[in-house]
Each structure stands twice: as C-alpha cells, then as structure tokens.
Amino acid sequence: MESRYWTLLVLVAATLACSASPKPEPRSSEAEIRAIHAMYDAWMEDFEAKGPDGYAAHFAKNGGLLPPKQAPVLGKERIRVWVEDFTEQLTLEVAELNWDEVKVSGDLGFARYHGTGKYIFKSRREEIAFDQKYLDVLQKRQDASWEIVYHSWTSSDYDPSLWDTQWNTEGN
Questions:
Q1: How many domains are there within the chain?
Q2: pTM of the predicted model, to two decimals?
C-alpha cells in the first residue's frame, strides 16, 4: 500500500512540475524578419517612386499614423492625404536608419528602430535635423506579405516648429 502511495505522489508531483514550467517564448523566424525588412525596403522605394500613394499602400486598410503632438491619422486615404500635405511642405532626407528590434508572433509583429536625418522646409529653405525613434505594429496579409497597422514616432530633439504646423490633422 505504501508503495502505491509513493508512486501516486511521484506522479502528481511530476505532473505539477511539468504544468508549472514556463512555456518557451515563441521565436521570430529569420524568414519572417527578412520579409519584414523587405517590406520596409519596398515601402521606402514606393514612397520615393510613387509619393504619398506609394507610402500609404503599405498600410492596413484601417491602419494609422501616430505623429508626435498630433491626433492619430486613421485610414489609408487619410494617411495618403497627410503625407501629401507633408511632402508639399517638406523634403525628408534620411541619413541613417538602425534596427533595434523586430519580433513576430503568428500574424502580428512589431518593429522598433531609430534614425537620423533632416527635414527641409521648401518655402523657407530651412533645415531641421532629426533624431527619431519609431515603433510600428505590423500584421501579415493573407498573401503572407506584411503591412503596417500603426506607425508611430517620437523625436529625441522635439522641435515644435516642425510638428505644430498646418498639416496637424486634428479631428481625424
């Protein structure tokens, strides 16, 4: 009888030990991370070649921009209009872009990166250097390509003359 008791106790303890162990964190596959990097390359190429239409094409239908000190810009068409207004007033020159982290879990992912460059006001011929941090939420499309759900950024050297301008899209 005592032997059965110990056997049962060992089985219960083993079961509890197995169920209490933490589950391994899902790993982002290298293939998915390469696909996300390729999406970002295509996004910048399309923006340069097609302007605001190319920029907005890489967003989910109900995606959004979350610009500093502005209301969210929600929906592909509003993103296109916001970028059109932005590019009518400014030229963007990216000097450096560095990836901090890209993670994938199933059909969702995020990318965290930072970059430097300058904004050039077309009307004033004034340049403002930037040092910005970005955080994007991504989702996989049905065709297994990736799209941006939310694109957000903040500046290490916030300059109100840049973001408190007429393309501030309050009410979007």
A1: 1
A2: 0.76
